[in-house]
Amino acid sequence: MTVDLPTSAKSIESEIKQLRDEILRHEELYYVHDRPEISDVEYDALVERLRQLEEEYPELQTPDSPTLRVGGKPAEGFEQYVHRRPMLSLDNSYNIEDLRAFDERCRRLADGRAFEYVAELKIDGLSISVHYEGGVLVRGVTRGDGRVGEDVTQNVRTIRSVPLRLKVKEGGATEVRGEAYLSRKAFASLNLEREEADEPKFANPRNAAAGTIRQLDPKVVARRRLDLFAYDVLRGERKPFATHWEALDWLERAGLSVNPHRAKCSSIEEVIEFCNRMEAERDRLEYEIDGVVVKVNSTALQDEFGATTKAPRWAIAYKYPARQATTQIENIIVQVGRTGALTPVAMLTPVQLAGTVVSRATLHNEDEIKRLGVKIGDWVNIEKSGEIIPKVLSVVASRRTGAEKTFRFPRKCPVCGGVVSRPEGEVVARCVAADCTAQLKGRLLHFASRRAMRIEGLGDALAEQFVQKRMVRDVADLYKLKLEEVAALERMAEKSASNLLAQIEASKSRDLPQLVYGLGIRHVGERMAALLARTFRSLERLAAATAEEIDDIHEIGLTVAESVRDWFDDEGNRDLCRRLRDEGVRTELAGGALPAHDEAFAGRQFVLTGKLETLTRDEARALIEARGGRVTSTVSKKTDYIVAGEDAGSKLDKARALGLTIIGEAELKEMLG
Ligand code: IVH
């Protein structure tokens, strides 16, 4: 039957059909093949758009609409099993407002009655139902489409955290539900094995876990060490406990593994606190999580609130910002760093990821490009974790059109045309030209950077001109610059030139740790530089130290020691040090009178947050480090002090949630004496 619709309605009908097909295709990729091509957020947006359209035009909803059911169809190869009670999914929320809206809805439904929430981690794996009869494991089933799953009993039996017999006396049929997952460690060793066997690696632990549970050979499954965190129990179709919290306790007593990070919360504010605290902890967990699940504790209220076809109304998933996304590589460029290392970088179609727009991702080196098989024009999955530069995870092979171009790694330095060398057994290719302008520019920028000699105003454009016009051949030449020649540069005037020279002059009195760091010795980061400076107390003594003497320093290993020794063995570098000293740059430790280690600071971790009154953050950091303290950027249980200034934000909240010692600038200064 054809329905006569006005043109605009027809185009809506075709949009709905397109959306439906698109969503079904992604569901199949995700649930059946474990090969998603889009992120969860993108998928949710498609479903939400379809749901809105169907709500507006209910006559256009078809019985096969993905909004009517839970997931995709089960893969072939295992027997199907109809769940006695459907394994529902969860509604997602991506921000605190969503959580508050969920709370309001729950309170409305509870109609004045008091209730609690349970907040627990949302483990990034796949849900499994485990059946016990008379306390003995008889069946393990995947979630499948929520209604029908696959019988994977043999494989579930291999999971060590799933007991074959419950530890408590149980008469009838009991169903345990939980999330099967691979720990980061198990995932890493599985991928290593696959790499050695020349098999394609898994993109993430969740894909690896999903792929593993569908392995036909249970011996392979057993070797991969899946785990399971239980989060629900049913007897028949009923929940046997008055509260979810009791159910979790029972599961633990029965011998199942229940995630220890859980909280009973009497308000949504407590739930939010838990979400923030766990977000800070996230990277330290032994397994991956993608958020927090919030559930109404009372099972009577759960029954009352009920569920839609997709998800219960008494629970919600609070998802942390996605760390993976899919986008296209528009080009691959090669950057040359201050050590001459050539780094290929993928230039991406900009994509929103974990709160920022990402337009480039590192490809690390030539071997990585080969391993990934990546070409220009490819669609790729990218990942951003913590504060690390985004990286390319894998190529979406199914989106290839044939128009992609193979990338050839340069054999000559893309900046100076110099020889590129890649010694046997090393992955990094380097430009070995001594006069490579890219390296010199990199060294200047590093020397002038905030944590080194802090020469404000010396940015990319100026460094480029200094190098191109051959005004500066090494960092010591910066101190010889004349006002007229700097003022004559592009986009410079007398005033800005004199400001820059004043900055350069001021940098002469930076302390020894900053100078040592600024020299850019391989393997000598900020912390190593501080240790070296505090131990040897002058550049001359450091230059004269043997590799053994350096290696003797607690926390410094042989690689650093040898690298330092090699650097000072170079005649050019020794000459550079002499010229720096002759120009008046401080080469002695300024805090000469200070003890190298101070009881209150030595070995302690500090986090600085907010705007301090009189000190800049870098100054505060330098003072703390001069006493042997350590400044880190993330708040954790290991943080000893959090120094909070004005407008301190989420770090302070986290510190409060963790019960850490919070001090202000005045107290810090008091400690510093
Ligand atoms: S409760 C009706 N609790 O998240 C309640 N699910 O996005 C359904 N998941 O299919 C699940 N950790 O695979 C629950 N602590 C947890 C969970 C959890 C991970 C997964 C589960 C579910 C999916 C929904």
Describe the 3D structure.
By secondary structure, the protein is an alpha+beta fold. The chain is built from 24 helices and 22 strands. The strands form six sheets. The protein has a five-stranded mixed sheet. It has a five-stranded antiparallel sheet with strand order 14-13-12-15-16. Strands 5-4-7-8 form a four-stranded antiparallel sheet. A hairpin with a 2-residue loop joins strand 13 and strand 14. It is globular. The termini are far apart.
Which range does the strand content fall in? 15-25%
> What is the domain tally?
5
CATH-assigned homologous superfamily of the largest domain: DNA ligase/mRNA capping enzyme
Low-confidence stretches: 1-5, 69-75
- Largest sheet properties: 5 strands, mixed
Shape: globular
The portion of residues assigned to helices is: 25-40%
**Small ligands present:** 2-(butylsulfanyl)adenosine
Helix-strand blueprint:
Blueprint: H1 7-32, H2 40-56, E1 80-82, E2 92-93, H3 96-110, E3 117-123, E4 126-133, E5 136-142, E6 148-150, H4 153-156, E7 173-181, H5 184-196, H6 205-213, H7 218-224, E8 227-234, H8 244-253, E9 262-265, H9 268-281, E10 289-296, H10 299-305, E11 315-319, E12 324-336, E13 342-353, E14 356-362, H11 366-372, E15 379-383, E16 391-395, E17 420-421, E18 430-431, H12 437-448, H13 460-468, H14 483-487, H15 494-507, H16 512-518, H17 526-536, H18 539-544, H19 547-551, H20 558-569, H21 571-582, E19 605-609, H22 617-626, E20 630-632, E21 641-644, H23 650-658, E22 661-663, H24 665-672
Parallel strand pairs: 2-11, 19-20, 19-21, 21-22
Antiparallel strand pairs: 1-6, 3-9, 3-10, 4-5, 4-7, 7-8, 10-11, 12-13, 12-15, 13-14, 15-16, 17-18
This protein binds 2-(butylsulfanyl)adenosine (IVH).
